[in-house]
Amino acid sequence: MATDKAALTPDSEVEDGALTPGAEENPSLDPVPEAEAGPAALGVADWPAGHRSGFVAIVGAPNVGKSTIMNYFLGQKLAIVSPKPQTTRQRILGILTREDAQVLFLDTPGLHKPVTQLGEYMVSAARDSLDDADVVLWVVDGSREPDDADRTVAEALASTEAPKALILNKRDQVPAEAMPERQRAYLALATAEQVFWTAATLGRGMEPVLDWIIAHLPAGPRYYPEDQLTDREERFLVAELIREQALLKLRHEVPHAIAVTIDEFKERQDGPHYVAATLYVEKESQKPIVIGAGGATLKAIGTAARAEIERLLGHPVYLALWVKVRHNWRRNPAHLRALGYRDRPER
What one-character DSSP code corresponds to residue 8? Predict the structure, then answer.
C-alpha cells in the first residue's frame, strides 16, 4: 500500500544557486522530442473518409479557464488547474481522437506582460501556439469587464488568420442582463467568427464549441494513435501534479517561485512505484515556508500530490519530496533550461 509520507531528510540543504552537476540533463520537465513521438516516427497517418485534424490553440489571459476547457474536452485531467494566475507555464498538447476527427489542443500559458525570464518564456510559448494554430479559442472571463491582460491577448490575436471563437467562460457567474454588453465589450477588442458562453467547470455550453472546432479543422489524417493523450512524458505530468498541490497549499509569492524536478522514477510491479522529487524555491526564506512547522506543509503537499499521481499512473506510489533553493531561478536563463523550460521542438 502506498504511504502518505513526504520525506524530509537532512540533505534538503540550501543550494548556493550554482548549477549542480548533470542539471542540464535533468529530463523531468522535458517534452518527448517530436522526432520520437510525432507523426513521422509513429507512422499512423490513418485517414478515414471525411476525417479532419489540426491544432487548436487555447489562448487567453491568466486564470480564465483555458486548462479546464481542454481537460473537459479530453474527458480527463491532463493540465493542472488552480485559482492562481499563471498556473500553466508550458504549452501542453492534448489529443482528442474521434471517429471523424483528431483534435490537437494546445493549452497555453496566459498572455501577460512578463517581468521575468520565466514570464518571457511563457508568453513566447503562447504566441508560438498562435503561429501553429488551425483554429483559435480565445477564452475570457465573462464574469468581469475586459482589462489590460485581455487587451494584450487581443493584440496577439491580430497575428493569426486562423478562424477564432470567443469563449466567454464562467457563464454561471454572470447575470443574464449583463451578457449582451459584456459580449460587446470583448468583441470591441478583437474580431471572432463565433461567440460561445460556457461554464467549463460545470460542463455547460461545451459541446457546441467542440462541434464548431471540428467543422473548422482542415481535412487531414490521424497524426497520433487513438489511445494517445499527449506527447508529454509521465515524469513531466507527475512534476506538474506536485506543483499543482504547492500552488493550492501555499500563498502569496511562494507558489509562483516553485519549480519541481523528478529526481528518481522507479516502476515496481511488486510494490509501489518510487518517485523522488525536489521543489526548488528562489530564496532561503521561502524554504521553511514550504516545509512548514514540523514538516506539516510539505507533508500535506506530498499526500495530496500522491493521490493525484496514483490516479494518473493507476498504481500505488511512494512519494519522497525535498526542498532546495536555486536563487532567482525565474530570472536566470541557465537555471530555466536546467529546470526544463527549454525551447520547444519545431512543429
Answer: -
- Helical axes 117-132 vs 148-157, angle rounded to 10°: 40
Mean pLDDT value of segment 265-272: 95
User: d(Cα 203, Cα 212) in Å, to the nearest integer?
Assistant: 16
Angle between helices 296-313 and 234-249 (to 10 degrees): 140
Distance of CA 155 to the CA centre of its chain: 22
**Per-residue pLDDT reduced to its tens digit, 8-48:** 333 333 332 222 223 333 333 344 333 344 444 344 555 77
Contact 259/339 with Cβ under 8 angstroms?
yes
Q: Is the distance from CB of 306 to CB of 276 less than 8 angstroms? A: no
Q: Which residue has the cell 543550494?
A: 15
State the sign of the Cα–Cα–Cα–Cα dihedral 110, 113, 118, 124.
Answer: positive
What local confidence, expressed as pLDDT, does residue 332 receive?
Answer: 94
Helix ranges restricted to H, 91-134: 117-132
Q: Rounded to 5 degrees, what are φ and ψ at 7?
A: -65, 135
CA end-to-end span of the chain: 42
* Percent of the chain as helix, strand, coil, to the nearest 5: 40, 20, 40
Domains annotated for the chain, with CATH where assigned, are 23-28+233-338 (3.30.300.20), 34-216 (3.40.50.300)
Residue 130's nearest CA partner among 57, 218, 214, 216 is: 57
The answer to whether the CB of 186 falls within 8 A of the CB of 196 is no
Question: Where residue 114 falls among pLDDT bands split at 50, 70, 90?
Answer: confident
Q: For position 253, what pLDDT does the model report? A: 86
